[in-house]
Amino acid sequence: MKKINIYEAALCCPTGVCGPSVNPELIRLTAQAKVINQSADVRVLRRNLAQNPNAFVREQRVADLIAAQGISVLPVTIVDNVVVKQGAYPTTAEMEAYSGFDLRASV
After folding, report:
1. Dihedrals phi, psi of 59, to nearest 5 degrees
2. Which pLDDT score, from 0 to 100, does residue 10 have?
3. In a 10 Å sphere around its CB, with 0-12 CB exposed, 13-18 middle and 19+ buried, how is residue 93 labelled?
């Protein structure tokens, strides 16, 4: 199974609709992850620093990036154990490439 792991900065919720302002990137990513996760072949896992700090400790590459560059390196995206992006969420085109899904048609 292909795995897309996204390690995010501390958020009060993963959808981006809580707090004083809505983050459209988080809303888009949440919708795309929902579509992708309906598949048996690909899984999107989002790790939030506030809700799952141990995941950041267990993933040595993310811990090393934070130690070297600070928290601004987040979000970090790892696809099949390869760091593919840091400092920004994957675009729709990138999520399509990582997952093999046509997300423009389904989201």
Report:
1. -90, 95
2. 87
3. exposed
Please report the pLDDT score of residue 74 as a whole number.
Answer: 97
pLDDT tens by residue, 16-47: 556 667 788 999 999 999 999 999 999 999 99
β pairing state of 76-79 and 82-86: antiparallel
- DSSP, collapsed to helix, strand or coil, labels residue 17 as coil
Q: pTM of the prediction?
A: 0.90
- CA–CA gap between residue 4 and residue 39 (Å, rounded): 13
Residue 5 confidence class, pLDDT cut points 50, 70, 90: very high
For residue 89 the two structure tokens come to 């969420």
What ranges do the domains of the chain cover?
2-106
Domain 2-106 is classified in which CATH homologous superfamily?
Glutaredoxin (3.40.30.10)
